[in-house]
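dumping this here so i dont lose it again. seq + smiles for nicotinamide-adenine-dinucleotide
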Amino acid sequence: MTRIGLAGAGLIGARHADAIQVADGVTLAAVADPSEAVGRPVAEKHGVPWLSSLDDLIPRDDVDGIVLATPNQVHVEGGLSCIAAGKPVLVEKPLATDLAEARRLVEAAEAAGVVLMAGHHRRHNPLMTKAKEIVDEGRLGTIASVQATTWFMKPDDYFDTPWRRKKGAGPVYMNLSHDIDLLHMLCGPVVTVHAMDSNAVRGNEVEETAVVLLRFQSGTLGTVNISDTVVTPWSWEMTARENPVYPATSEDCYWLAGTHGSLAIPSLSFWANPAKRSWWEPLSATRFPYPFADPLVCQMAQFGAVIRGEEAPKVTGRDGLAALEVIEAVKTSAATGAPVHLARP
Ligand SMILES: NC(=O)c1ccc[n+]([C@@H]2O[C@H](COP(=O)([O-])OP(=O)(O)OC[C@H]3O[C@@H](n4cnc5c(N)ncnc54)[C@H](O)[C@@H]3O)[C@@H](O)[C@H]2O)c1
């Protein structure tokens, strides 16, 4: 069993602790959280020690790797401490509060040869593994265009907490990075971003709606539309059945349009012309089956396999960095009105 130390036992940390305990090949070793009120109950639930500091967690001999589910502002500091001690680390998204710091963290891990995974857990969903397989098999032909919809309603009382009304706490930073990461997985890196955002409904400092044009290195074009002030069933949250707190619908949220067929996600409905590719010909629809599994659990099992040297990370630090670059470009483009071009190797 690979033994995992959890730093940060808050909202997502508590779910990681549960996931570690049911994932294959890993077990929870200890929980570190400066808040005893938060950390101790999670540790006690799983029968492991509670520690008040990450510094006490890192050097423990019974900890093979660390999950950093701490606030964004301390990801880099905590991550660098893990790397300095040679402990593999899974860092929750976003890797850092700004790009330069995230880059510093990823480069430190690479220089030290220590595993750093980014917490974009959706990539670990078997449904995305299947979607990627369908794309890689070439069934869609050349993907000319993609469309992603990230629409949901955050209730009024969500904004009673003051920081949620401030810049940086809107759906672009909080939610969109997961969608961008999945688009990167399916279509490769984004090279150009052009965006508009708006706060016209609630009037808070933070954006509530944004529309984004994307150009991928492959030549694919994309549109992403995100809003947290609309009542709709069309977002990953409301369709993928990943987190039971969201009532699931049977709708789709991403559409990939190719020269030989198109794919709707998460239903994995594949549309094609069986005879001749033409808008005058009948279309056939196929739904691909996939196994259901909790991506948080899959992510922890993979972290264990990576620590043991059995697998390469599904989501690297570079992947986390790439998603953060696009998110920052969305905000920059929306503020300036100009497209942002991203340097890609
Ligand atoms: N992958 C996802 O879908 C997802 C979902 C929610 C949150 N997140 C990310 O997870 C991170 C945590 O978010 P949250 O909503 O759980 O926050 P939270 O505020 O509920 O919990 C954070 C916890 O970290 C503890 N903490 C603070 N400094 C620490 C330190 N130095 N060492 C150890 N613990 C420390 C706090 O006491 C708190 O209990 C954020 O980066 C967030 O963006 C990811």
